[in-house]
Amino acid sequence: MAGVGLTGRDRPKVEVGLLRKRQSKFAPAEINLMSSPIEPEFQKIYDVVRAIPRGSVLSYGDVAKIAGSTARTVGWAMGNVDGLDVPWQRVVGADGYLRIGKRSPELKEKQHRLLLEEGVEFLENGYVDMAKQRDAGAPPPVPQTLSLDLDE
Predict the structure, then answer these.
(1) What are phi and psi of 92, to 5 degrees?
(2) Smallest Cα–Cα separation from 54: which of 86, 90, 83, 88?
(3) Which terminus of the chain, N or C, has less C-beta within 10 A?
């Protein structure tokens, strides 16, 4: 899950050296965010994802709300967990869809398999049963290192 192709309007608001380089809107650049130190915003996201219990999932939006970020930034962070101890498979679309399938059918299958091994239940259409996930309990606690002061 190395680099992410980003174009003008898709750039994250976090400041990563390579992302600040001007790119033609007609020539998306292949950017590996892991080529630089982990951004603090990504680290907050990774801390939240690490706190998701085995057998549970959160949506990109849920993770974003807890981390004080955006769902899109959570997606970029999950696309760059290569080599990190982050259970990326536990983050899915709000409707239960395995969004990574847009990037790679192989990664979607891997995510599906990993979640099944953890006991996550799926609907017949292949989506995570989000109603059961929400009934199972509240989102994980916010890690101690995070600050949710959104007025900063």
Answers:
(1) -135, 175
(2) 90
(3) C
Tokens of 34: 């892991």
In the chain, where do the E strands start and end? 4-6, 29-31, 58-59, 91-92
**What is the reported pTM?**
0.66
Which residues are CB-neighbours of 126 under 8 A, at least 6 positions away?
A: 98, 112
What is the per-residue pLDDT across 38-86, written as a single tens digit (0 to 9) for each? Answer: 678 899 999 999 999 999 999 999 999 999 999 999 999 998 888 789 9
- Rounded Cα–Cα distance for residues 81 and 3 (Å): 10
For the record, the structure tokens of 104 come out as 């790679």
